[in-house]
Amino acid sequence: MNYNIDMMKKLFKTKKVFVLAGLTAVLVLASCSDDFLDRTPEDAYNVDDFYQTDAEVIAASNHLYSRPWFAFVSNVSWGIGELASGNARTWDARNSEFQTYAITGEHGTLTQAWESLYAVIAQSNSVINTLPEKVGPNVSQEVIDNSIGEARMIRATAYFYLVRIFGSVPILEDNTEYVLEPVVPRNPVEDIYEFIERDLRFSIDNLHDRTQSSFYQIGRVDSNSAKAMLAKVHLYQENWSMAYQLSNEIINSGAFSLVEEYNDLFLVQNENNSESVFALQWTDSGVYSEGNALQSFFGSSGISGFADGWSALGPSISLQDAYEDNDERFYGTIMAPGAVYPNLNGGYTVPENINFQGTNVGIKKYVVGNVGGAMQSYPNNTYIMRYAEVLLIKAEAAIMGGGPIEEGLQALNKVRDRAELEDLDSYTLEDVFQERRIELALEGEFWYDVIRRGPDFSIPFLAAQEKGTFDNSTTPATVASEKFTPTMDDLLFPYPSNEIQNNPALLDPPVPFDFGDEN
Amino acid sequence: MYKNPNKSENVFYRYGKILLMLMFCSATTVAQAQDSVNGTVTDSNGIPLLGVNVIEKGTTNGTTTDFDGNFELTVEGPTNLVFSYVGFVTQEVRVTPGQILSITLNDDAEALEEVVVIGYGAQLEENITGSVARISSEELENIPQVSVDQLMQGRAAGVAISKNSGQPGAAVSVRIRGVNSITGSSEPLYIIDGVPTSGEAGAEGLSPLAALNPNDIESINILKDASATAIYGSRGSNGVVLITTKKGKLGQSKLVYNSYVALQRPTNKMEVMNLQEYATHQNNIGEIYNLDPQIEFLNPSLLGPGTDWQAEVFDDAILQNHQLAFSGAKEGVNYFLSTSYTDQEGTVIGSGFDRMTVRANVNADIKDWISTGINISASRTNDKITLNNQSNGIISLSLLNNPATAVYNPDGSFAGPVTPDEIAYGTRNPIAEALSIENTVERNRVFGNLFVELDLPANFTFRTEVGGDVGNNLRDLFQPTYTYGNIESGQNRLQVTRENSTFWILKNLLTYNNSFADKHDVTFLVGQEVQESSWEGVTSVDGQFVSNKLPVLGQGNANDLVDQYIGSSALESYFGRAIYTFDNKYNLTLSLRADGSSKFAKGNKWGYFPSASASWLVSRETFMEDFDGLADIKIYGGYGEVGNQNIPNFAYGVVLNPMNTGLGTGFEYANFKNEDLTWESSAMANFGLDFAAFDNRLSTTVELWHKTSKDFLFQYAVTDFVTGGQSPGAIAAPWINLGEMVNKGVDLALSYKTLGDNDFNYSGTLTFSHYTNEVTELLGDLTINQALYISDSNMNVTLTQVGEPVGMFYGYKVEGMFRTLEDLEDAPIQFGRPVGNELFGTTWLGDIKYEDINGDGVINSDDRTVIGNPHPDFTFGFQNNFTYKNFDLGVFLQGAYGNDIFSGVKRTLTAGSSYYVNQDPIVLDFWSVSNPDGQQPRLVRGSEANPNIIMSDRYIEDGSYLRIQNITLGYTLGRETAEALGIGNLKVYGSIQNLYTFTDYYGYDPEVGTYNQNTLLMGVDNGRYPSPRTFTLGLNVEL
Q1: Which residues from chain B sit within 8 angstroms of residue A473, using beta carbons?
Q2: CA pair distance A223, A250, nearest whole angstrom
Q3: Which residues of B touch A118 (CB under 8 A)?
Q4: Do the beta carbons of residue B285 and residue B297 sit within 8 Å?
């Protein structure tokens, strides 16, 4: 046996020793350094390496003006704002239930409202909570404060829509606390408004002022924007004097002014004009959800250059009738047969047979023609608020006792002047309501204006809206009438049923929100 | 006993061992008186074999056969001779000097049946302790399936396979023993010649296995239980499929040509209204909607049948396949070379698949103690994709499209909707959709593995393997400008994606194998493995091309959009295994693997996966010697833990998604983080019994298994108001370790074969699988709802809750229809809708009456309940082979029993109230005052909030089916005739695939698979591409 052992020794001494050395080398090479198993994203930033420079922190709020709003703007805004309010009508099965008040918690568009607005809140909260924690030492405090101010104003805007659509909803300040928490109580409407106000006051104090700060970048909200939004919020709380005071301050600041021609407000080249208080900032990238989809629904076939133009809603007969004669805004809002738009697709004449949803007219507002982008993704901004509305807030607050009526009248007439309408000598709340309807028609606003006047006004008002069609088999065309009466329950929309199933606490009474000691 | 098939067929391995014996044992060899043994060695066909090693056992005394297969060897006294030859089973014969032998060596294919490839090695089948199912190449032959995953259907117990789509090249759902995880994919891990590849489908739902030519496959071994898969640790929890490709065999140098041509034909059409029925229906709806009547429909009886859109969309399609393979071996070297071409047209217009492959498998012995080998294949596949499986996909469009519209205008252009109403509500022309979008994916792939194996002293073997999978995908999507009807798109758009992926794996394996005292056999394996996967891609968009002729980036004038993505993941592993066999009767296997993954945060990177299993060959016990009733009785069982890490990279941290905004690039929060994220693990116990009866004609395998998957990974959104739900800009829910579920089941395989001594022979295999699934924990006691968009409404379709199987259909139960005023008065108020005959917002005669499940006197969302179960009671496959002289007949049946299907198609086709949309003719039998016995609900306005069409058991269908999956009749040329013609072998055959399906299902095809491979959407039919019937003629020639 010694022979064998010697043999083995010999073997190891000769060629196989090299082999074993090689093996060891392979094993060592293959056992890796610690880094081998650490893989942070290679094609994207992660929160730990972002927010190190001013530029990065400034960019941190860009998305809040865009993608999370997409579903809300493209579908919900007109479903609720126009179809339910009686400004528009449709046969389109997708959203016709808004006009007939047959919305249930299963409705896809309603789910979009909930999800989209809460997506805005989730993204805003992430900015608000992440920046203080992750921001690098070289970023100036002013830049940080401004970005958080933007996020808080945008969060407030989303809650403002939510409370107006659904009433009581859960307030989330830090979504990461709730990702594994199914049961979250809703909070009372008053607390939601309180929360909104706190956000907006923070934004007023921390955002740049476009009239003063050289750091202000066009397209973004500033302290004046936040103030305007707060004025509007006060209108809903019937705090007329605050609404008056804030709107008056903005008007006097000179931060904004009316664009000369109403129709020019909706041209792509006039984005971020002097009247734009807060507008969503879309692109022509053509990527789904990075552009504005309204034209796809509001336009007629072929007008965008793409296969959209679904004319999904038509201006209702009531809305058409609501215009005073010679109101310039009709032309800027509604396409009548034969009308000419020199700025649209290099000159566009409305066909004589235009007939959206049996209304014998079409829609002009937000229809910008062939401007690049892609189907459901056009670069034109969506207004959340325009200066004209600030003027009307002032007028409304004044007539309701919040300030001098003559000042209010002046503000109201400014809006009418631009529409080439005669000045009023005196006015009532009814006049402001009418002016708001026409000025902001098809901008997704009218439903809230109707509802905030209370059920005694809104139910009969809504019941009287003519949502029927023209019967063109007679000459002249007659109206095939359709009117729909909402019940009290229809004035707020139901929570999506899936959410109730996941969070049954939505059916429990609201629980006061804990504001703690924070501002 | 541990046995590696590579070694057993390798002359030089044997020779090397003998050399070692010489070195260690030569002292015992003493010269004695000698005498000679003569003989001839042939193969099973009687052909002499040249160069067979003939060795006197335990000595260095040996020789090789000559050209005529003859040998002469001198021996001293009775002894054992060992005959070994590459590609053949080694044989040992007892001889006495002076004897003349006639030895027939059996083909190694039979050897392979006995030796089963297990993870990182091979083992004699009789000694296997875990659950391994085997599919051999013969079973895969001559079936016109282009992808190997489809071929496995019905052929192994416990393996449930269903096609997600009939589209050529489409992915398949493979579920090994129930549903283990709900991470979106429960697909097994595939190991092709040692290189892992995932079974998960890509974005287009294309099969990752489509690149592999099934004719190159020698065997498929499916490791089903955790004691078998634990050696694959973190990736073993969904089972492991080991695919081994072919090798050349000594003395069998041959050229093989296989070819078939098949005609694929759509099996059935669904019933939709013809033009007359459609016109009648439109008139009814027009009244409901208060619309101007469509003048051309005023008298429906004057109309013709209209356009049959299904006939336009579906058509016969040709499938052809050609393969040329060369194989053989010379001493120390064997090779298998093949090339193939497959071209499959889709039965749906505009879809298709083609593939080219080349493969080279070469093994060689470099020195007596070094061997090496390479398996490498390159492939190119091209997919032409049509939209399908969606409610706006081409299948749905063809069903819903208005029969009043023509496909083409007289000038040859596409016809389409003309009036604004039609444009607003009508569906799109599916032919125009299919033919005017060019959506292609070209996938190039090089896949291979190279090994070096060293025989070391003292029974050690060291093996190093380097494997790689390099892929390059070219995706092109071009939408030209088009007009049909009054729909006009003046914009063309090109989207080009180029992606590269690289995967490499390095393995070092050290094996020790030894036997002691004739009774103990041990094999130890220690190994180390590292693998890295990296990918990179660029997507670019251009548009505003001056014409549609040259869709190339840069030719257009649009704002170009460019996007790049880069990523990688890595896994580092150490493992060990001990196999001990005592007396060829008792086997014990222990294994442990440690995996470190880049998918988890520091502190959670490493997972440990142990297993233990044992088997007992009862029939080898002496007390069984006199028992003839059953043979080959084996009892085995095991326990193992395996993991799953099938989640995206960096799920533990927060990624910022870039996007374009009007203010510049925006960075949205892509996801919520979870730094505590850790391995999903699954513990499985398996118990099995094998036995044979009736003189080995019937062999049976029964296995019982129990699997607990815990901490399963799931991207869990508790509520939409936290994440933003499905909205763009929503923050994706965090990946969490959600809960626990239990699967248990039975696999049964019965094989019967005649003894093979007649002209007529039969063999058959019946596989039967049953499992139950139960969720036992969801972060305590949560529920998971899975919603699906079906024609614009977002419906909760399934519910997963503790105590129930995963993904149960969830909705309302239908009690009947309101037919009398008394019905209405007595019934609970439904969805807050008062009783009234309004066309919206009310409940009236002709509305569906739902069951008040909770008995609270109102019908609302609380009355939803479980209304169907997508899990089958059992699935089965039954393969029958009959041979008579030169003819063979194969009949393969396959099916599932007891599963439910949610037919989204039925809901869409019977919704009733949509204008300009075609429907099932049964809708005409709607309730009205004049048709009080109508079986369909009344027509009302609006579709989405119409409670008559909410998720209910109206749309739950029995998905049971029995399918005659394949019938093949073949004729093989007699040996003498073939030789006279100068060929080795010739076979012609004809087959019919998917001949007939016995089912009560409403839609095209009850085999609906899993929607988007999402476990929570099992059995959802939303317009699935149906599987065609395929008639094939084929030819195999061997030279």
Answers
A1: 292
A2: 10
A3: 720-725, 727
A4: no
Give the Cα separation of B701 and B636 in Å (integer).
11
**pLDDT tens, B490-541?**
778 899 999 999 999 999 999 999 888 888 999 999 999 999 999 999 999 8
| Residue B1017 · residue B798 · CB < 8 Å | yes
> If you count DSSP H runs as helices and E runs as strands, how many of each does chain A have, helices first?
20, 11
Residue of A282, A60, A289, A506 lying closest to B722 (CA atoms): A506
Residue B546 in contact with partner chain A when CB distance is under 8 A: no
Chain-chain contact of A41 with B464 (C-beta, under 8 angstroms) = no
**Chain A residue with Cα closest to B778:** A180
Cis-peptide into A476, omega within 30 deg:
yes
Which one of A10, A35, A37 makes the best mutation probe of the B interface by having the most chain B beta carbons within 10 Å? A37
What ranges in A381-490 are assigned the alpha helix state H? 387-397, 405-418, 429-439, 446-451, 455-463
Residue B946 pLDDT class (50, 70, 90 cuts): confident
ipTM above 0.85, yes or no: yes
Distance between CA atoms of residues A8 and A12, nearest Å: 6
Query: Is the distance from CB of B84 to CB of B52 less than 8 angstroms?
Result: yes
Which pLDDT tens digit goes with each residue over B657-713?
Answer: 999 999 999 999 999 999 898 888 889 999 999 998 887 789 999 999 999 988 888
CA distance A190 to A257: 33
How many residues are given for chain A? 519
Q: Please tell me which residue of chain B has the smallest CA distance to A485.
A: B841
The length of chain B in residues reads 1039
Instruction: With CB atoms and an 8 Å threshold, state whether A93 touches B454.
Output: no
CB B262 within 8 A of CB B1030: yes
Contacts of B840 in chain A (CB under 8 A): 97, 100, 102
B724 with A93: Cβ contact below 8 A: no
Chain B residues within 8 A of A310 when measuring between CB atoms: 423-424
Cβ contact, residue pair A118, B728, below 8 Å:
no
**Do residues B181 and B644 make contact, with C-beta atoms less than 8 angstroms apart?**
yes
Say if the Cβ atoms of B655 and A44 lie within 8 Å.
yes
Query: Whole-prediction pTM value?
Result: 0.82
* Probe site for chain A from B291, B719, B788, B800 (most A CB atoms < 10 A): B719
Geometric angle at alpha carbon B862, from B858 and B866, rounded to 5°? 120
Residues contacting B877, CB < 8 A, separation 6+: B153, B154, B155, B765, B766, B767, B892, B893, B894, B965
Q: Which residues of B fall within a CB distance of 8 Å from A38? A: 598, 602
Q: Which chain B residue has the Cα nearest residue A380? A: B662
Which one of B508, B726, B736 has the shortest CB-CB distance to A180? B736
Distance in angstroms between the alpha carbons of the first and the last residue of chain B: 37
If 0-12 CB within 10 Å is exposed, 13-18 middle and 19+ buried, where does residue B543 land?
A: buried
Under a CB-based contact definition with an 8 Å cutoff, are residues B226 and B638 in contact? Answer: yes
* β-bridge partners, B355: B342, B381
Query: What is the 8-class DSSP label of residue A452?
Result: T
User: How are strands ordered across the β-sheet holding B664-669?
Assistant: A45-46, B655-661, B664-669
If residue B442 lies in a helix (H) or strand (E), which one and from where to where? strand B438-456
Contact B458 A8 (CB under 8 A): yes
CA distance A414 to chain B (A): 30
Contact A286 B792 (CB under 8 A): no
Name the strand (E) or helix (H) holding B371: strand B370-384
Q: How confident is the model at residue A3 (pLDDT cuts 50, 70, 90)?
A: very low
Instruction: Count A/B contacts: CB-CB distance under 8 Å.
Output: 372
Cβ-contact B860, B829 below 8 angstroms? no
